[in-house]
Amino acid sequence: EGLTDKHDSAILHGPPGSLSTIAVEGENVSGEFGAGAVITNLKDPVMNSSGTVIFAATIETDSGTERAIYRSTGSGKTVAVRTHVNYAGMPGNAGSYFDSIMTDLMINQAGDILFRNYIEDGPEGIPTAEDCGLWLFSNNTITQITRNGAPAGDLASLTILNPAARSFAGEYVTFQSRLSGDVTSTNDDCLWIWHQGTLSLVMREGEEATVSNGTETGTFQGAGAALSVAENGVAVLSARLSNSDAGIWRWDGQLTHIASAGGPVPGVEGHSWNSFQTIAINPRGTILFDASHREGSGPTTQGIWAVNSVGQLERIFVEGDSIIPNGGEAIQ
Per residue in 191-200, pLDDT tens? Predict the structure, then answer.
């Protein structure tokens, strides 16, 4: 019959040349959701380094619409978490349940799932203004990371607004949120780390940034800031300052400045950082970034730099460095 917009999307898994289909729109899933249940939408596949895949699905049943997160290791799939089910650990009344499509999907090495969703709890339970949150699903139990109206860490009298997941590794979650309370549009954007029920503020828009470039300091901008965490809880923050200079900071319980535009480049005499491109962190907390720098207003030079496990900045290579020990062809 050919493809239609009701079954033209699929989730596939496997190495190149040996892919298998995990799920396809139009597929019957009556075993999980009752007779006549069909997948009508697939979204957001995510895979961890062990090859476990999760994805969001919308299912139409004889009694209405259901949403679910499926989990697969490549052979078959199972429902991990779904709407209209009360899981252990959920806040609110005994009949509370998730009632919307799961978003912000992330999975760690252990197979625990992080997602964003809304809770339906009835007129006597959680108010609508506080029903959106980030949730951890592990061992068939839900743990609340945060939600609208939850306390904003140590920021007295302020609460979380519109949390959005940023990274998930080991037992650590990072997320961005706005603040609700006595705030303005210049100081209401934050980045957080959650670990085993403890919430730590990493960056707040408008707060003074620790900068060691010897020239200028400034306050953090919220727009465009990013925070990624490693399995040991070390994180890397990239953000802009109020003077629009970009910078990189390392978090291990406190922020340590690594580099920012206009600051000196260690080991490259007379050069200042110009811009930062790819910024990444591995599971052990080593930070890697690609940056350009230059002398005065001269041409830029590109390089790759690392921040090791004890926070020391290391030069990997810079344009012009030899790729052969003791001399040889230079990197272009």
Answer: 999 999 999 9
